[in-house]
Amino acid sequence: MTNYDDLMGFVRETQALGAVAGRLGWDQETMMPAGAAAQRGEEMAAMEGVLHARRVDPRIGEWLAAIDPAALDDTGRANLREIRRSFERASKVPAKLAAALARATSLAHGVWAKARAAEDYDGFAPTLAEIIALRREEAAALASGGDPYDALLEDYEPGTSGAEIAAMFDAMRPRLVALSDKVLGAERQPAALTGDYPEAAQIALSTEVAQAFGYDMTHGRIDKAVHPFSSGSGADVRITTRTDSGDPFNCIYSTIHEVGHATYEQGVDAAHRLTALGQGVSMGVHESQSRIYENQLGRSRAFSAHLFGRMRAQFADLNIGDAEAFYGTVNRVRRGYIRTEADEIHYNLHVMLRFDLERALVAGDLDVHDLPEAWNNRFEADFGVAVDKPSNGVLQDVHWAAGLFGYFPTYSLGNVYAGCLHEALRRAVPDLDGQLAAGDSSAATGWLREHLQQFGALREPRDTIIHATGSEPSVEPLLGYLEAKFSELYGL
After folding, report:
1. Where does Zn(2+) bind (predicted)?
2. Predicted structure pTM score
3. What is the mean pLDDT of residues 196-209?
């Protein structure tokens, strides 16, 4: 076992250094002074250089060749699988390119944030063009003659392809569009929440809700950021949220969403920490946790009744009279610009737009300077509304500034997985609604931890869902859930 022990010791140190690099990224988006951006770019590039050198260290290949998988248990073989995948992918990317990507994406965050605030896409376009050029170069190295977009997608959802995602979207789009048309044309329309909601009270309530959904604040913290996110793994998992004085749901549900991510990381078996298995297995599975927390649990009639009581206690006067009306308000359907604020029906249409555009960008079929027009035309076609400004359109998301091409489709894949998990959860916990109405999510979150979260990356993504639910993933549970929920809510 010496070779295996040596390999795992080396990987543990690499994982620890990667966690340090992640903390630099967290700091950049929450607390770093604006004037430090250029230096932080150099720091991130230096860290990536060190990490890349470790990921392609020839000793990894030697250890892998010397280890007999038959002598290992399931955990050992899974570690070898993940280590080999990382080693083979990293070995295809030149160190100079890896450092250049780290530097460019670090610097791009500040450029994007400034351009977004100024509604200035032209100010961001050159930076985006540079990132796309670097990612294309990386994709070409990784693809080895295959599809470049698939090579990038592999970073976020191993074992799937752009063609498979496109087929899934083709199956979902007609039913989502039909449901949207019926709901928006319904006579019954829930009222919107109005009023002014102080930031401090929003943060206090969101912190309470985060803990109600199992977020361990002794191993985490909540800060503000332009774009909410979760960062870290194991014993240090941090989340961010944002506030809008006229829309407390933005803060509350962004927090619940990120708590889903964070509790997945906190829930991984401590024995896997700082190993290749010590984090979520894929972004699709990760999104299944954030989406089931936010939607099937957090926007359920049962939990929204509990939240209604807590909102009244925190904010006193609400323009919504009772818990049932509040449930309608929480799930109010409208054609909005912002993906992270989208209702459950329209959310996946937002993702489909981004998926098609980024595939075209990576393929070279869409030029960066033509991106706003392509975005605006597609948005108006899908949502029937003209985009009024870049921050409501092409500049709203940070992902492309961060170089995360291939990430967006995992949001919808996560919704599909969440539909499957919710169906299984309902079978396993028949009194789920009674517990959620009391503000108690422990049975639901405990089931998810037991059947999915604790295993980290022990199984491949698809097998992770199959193990938790007992069935192959399918779009049917999600679509059936949406059609039943919104037909009942809107009196269809």
Report:
1. 257, 261, 287
2. 0.93
3. 96
